[in-house]
Specification:
about 30% helix, 9-stranded antiparallel sheet, 2 domains, metal-binding, Aminopeptidase, Peptidase_M20, Alpha-Beta Plaits, EC 3.4.13.18, about 475 residues, Peptidase_M20C
Length: about 475
């Protein structure tokens, strides 16, 4: 499998990535990849351990002549986001990722690629395995569950690591040096409704919204891409204003950190109002398609006849649901007043599920400012509580405050300009990196983040640039040669 990928340069990086992608590694199910990394470290006769939560740590001594350099922690996360196209037959729990080369890009066949953060993991593996790369003493830290709670970073104990510098390999633009990131909090609204018998004399339809780009709910939120849950709600709200529409079920979105690409709803309407329903849906479809024509050229909205369901949602609960989702903020909430072009605060309405008398709405709120994050969380909580739902806030994690006086930043900034004849983009990002959490355990550690160019992370359109990986690999090797000496 993936033999074409193994011929790419640098071969040691792409071969390790291909090895890694043969191992299923969904978030919260990392047992196989943990064992894979343990065996990898032990086979190299390197000190290897697994901590209490499942993070893997592998230590490698400095190469000759580099013993006086500061110890470096190389850090990436083992888990990956699992998303696939509806027409792709793939089992993430049992199958390895199937990859292909498309010009300058490596893609997966109908699924997420796992370059986030598999290319970072593969980089570290290639360095650990090499007997020719110059480097100081290394501590490789492979964390778990970054994508769905950062529980690996949260559970990391202080005192396990001795490194003074941490290189986080989880940034997705090769000209960017990350010095800060957003924190986040999961918001879950849950409610119930009365399941009523479907009225007589109705027609049933399935409404489908798909073809959206999706993407990373932090890095891509600034693009204003379509959110399948919000678009579906808009369609349902429009037709329910004038018709006796009843909802049987809704299933939209998936993971909190992915902008939802697809949503389906089963609805019924009096058969005498069928033509009016189809006309109003077509009118709203045309309006939405026109609004998103430049951003979402593959947006598809379909209405098809289906078998009449036996139960539907009671009208009072339905009205509250549609108004609550309409009122709940989605997208950019506030831009940073201090860093140009940086999203400070946002929210992603990631999942809306209505089925068997239960309503579940899942959101992920991000912000680099704690008070602003709390403000949005309170706003969403107020909306959902007014609708009668129970609201739970969980998975709260801190941001990473930028340090423009960082010694390792000076090293990377200077090397990048020397190697590329242009300045790097030193920036904070609107995504959840583990640096903020690790920094709580190791407050004196000097941290930086960088990586190769990856597009479409958290969606089946995820792809990694081959030329960028080559540029990035050379950068990594130069950084390791230029680590400052111990004080």
């Amino acid at each position: 499998m993936n033999e074409e990928i193994r011929t790419l340069e640098p071969k040691n990086l792409w071969n390790k990535f291909a090895d890694l992608n043969e191992v299923p590694r969904p978030s919260k199910k990392e047992e196989r990849v943990i064992e894979f990394m343990k065996k990898f470290g032990n086979d190299l006769n390197l000190e290897t351990m697994v901590d209490g939560v499942g993070n893997v740590i592998i230590r490698k001594p400095a190469t000759p002549g580099m013993e006086n350099k500061k110890t470096v922690v190389l850090q990436s996360h083992l888990d990956m986001v699992h998303q696939k196209n509806n027409n792709t037959n793939f089992d993430f729990d049992t199958q390895g990722i199937e990859m292909e080369v498309d010009g300058d890009w490596v893609r997966a066949k109908g699924t997420t690629l796992g370059a986030d953060n598999g290319l970072g993991v593969a980089t570290i593996m290639a360095i650990l395995e090499s007997d020719s790369i110059e480097h100081p003493a290394l501590e490789a830290l492979f964390t778990i569950d970054e994508e769905t709670g950062m529980t690996g970073a949260k559970g990391l104990e202080g005192g396990l690591l001795t490194g003074e510098i941490l290189l986080n390999l989880d940034t997705e633009e090769d000209d960017e040096i990350g010095i800060g990131c957003a924190g986040g909090v999961d918001i879950t609204a849950a409610g119930s409704y009365k399941n009523e018998n479907t009225p007589e004399g109705v027609s049933a339809f399935k409404i489908t919204v798909n073809g959206l780009q999706g993407g990373h709910s932090g890095m891509d939120i600034i693009k204003g891409l379509g959110n399948a849950n919000k678009l579906m709600n808009r369609l349902l709200y429009r037709v329910s204003e004038n018709l006796e529409l009843r909802i049987a079920e809704i299933n939209g979105g998936g993971l909190r950190n992915a902008i939802p690409r697809e949503s389906e709803a089963i609805v019924v309407v009096d058969e005498l109002q069928e033509k009016v329903l189809l006309a109003e849906l077509e009118e709203e479809k045309e309006a939405i398609t026109a609004e998103f024509s430049s951003l979402e050229p593959k947006l598809n909205i379909e209405i098809t006849s289906v078998e009449i369901p036996t139960k539907v949602m009671d009208s009072g609960a339905q009205d509250k649901l549609l108004k609550a989702v309409y009122a709940a903020h989605n997208g950019v909430y506030r831009m940073s007043p201090e860093i140009e072009g940086l999203v400070e605060t946002s929210n992603n309405i990631a999942k809306v599920e209505v089925k068997d008398g239960r309503i579940t709405i899942k959101c992920l709120t991000r912000s680099s400012v704690e008070s602003s994050k709390n403000d949005v969380a309170n706003s969403l909580s107020a909306v959902f509580e007014l609708a009668g739902y129970e609201v739970e806030l969980s998975g709260d994690y801190p941001g990473w405050a930028p340090n423009r006086n960082s010694d390792i930043l000076k090293v990377l900034d200077g090397l990048y300009e020397k190697m590329n004849n242009e300045k790097a983009n030193v920036a904070a990002c609107h995504a959840g990196l583990e640096c903020g959490i690790i920094g709580q355990h190791y407050p004196e550690m000097d941290m930086i983040s960088f990586g190769p160019t990856i597009r479409g992370a958290h969606s089946p359109d995820e792809r990694a640039s081959i030329s960028s990986a080559q540029k990035y690999w050379k950068f990594v090797l130069e950084i390791l040669k230029n680590i400052p000496e111990k004080n």
